[in-house]
User: Fold this.
Amino acid sequence: MKTAKLTDSEYLIKTGKILRTKQMTKQEKYFEIALAGGENLNHEPGQFVMVSVPGVGEAPISVSSSPTKKGSFELVIRKAGKLTGVLHNLEASDTVGIRGPFGKGFPTQILEGNDLIFVAGGLGIVPLRSLINFVIDNRRDFGEVHILLGCKTPQDMLFGDEVEGWSKRTDVNFSCTVDRADPDWKGNIGLITSLIPGVTLDPARTFGVVVGPPIMYKFVIIELLKKNIPERQILVSLERNMKCGVGKCGHCQIQNYYCCKDGPVFTYEQIKYKKEAI
Ligand code: FES
Assistant:
């Protein structure tokens, strides 16, 4: 197994002060964090940080805010074990350890000048929000923008106010669907794949950006390929079984790729033959 050599900065744990928290759903909690000394995180959309609590552990967490937001960054942490349970008990003015940012994010310079179709299912909105807000904050650098969101129920929609803001923009084509509606829901009902055939796009200049639960990728990619978007222009973010986050432990390995170092963002062309990837 290949192992990567860590640089000093990759080992360095910085102090992150929690500025604000918000319980988003029963399982998901939002954190706004500032690094000590006012240092910017300097991440790219799609990258992640290692978040630690001394004596408890460390876990990779996607950065949800755009790098255009300066002075602090945002995470959404799902309660799924001991460390995330401890993190959920933290509030404003508590501190956590932060290493990173790590991984290959979305290639924003390649995306510039092109049309984009974002497809986010469930928690996929958390890392994709970083890129969506980056694009919105630099709107003139990009062509047509389509945002397609899907989640189980209206209550599961994260960042509801922000999503509503995207839906009202005249320079963004927005669609949203839920698997199960409630009586107040006015939008689409059905799988996120059902939104793709209705999108009009120019495949030669369109990049598809897909983030969501593992089951979603295959069917969304089939629909994007039906639209004739080239395989190299379909980007996915795979965050699988990460532990060390820096290419040392092998936990995130998909054949010859390490999700943490070679990804988490890959093109479909890179991973299409790796059956365990999608
Ligand atoms: S090699 Fe350890 S998480 Fe990727």
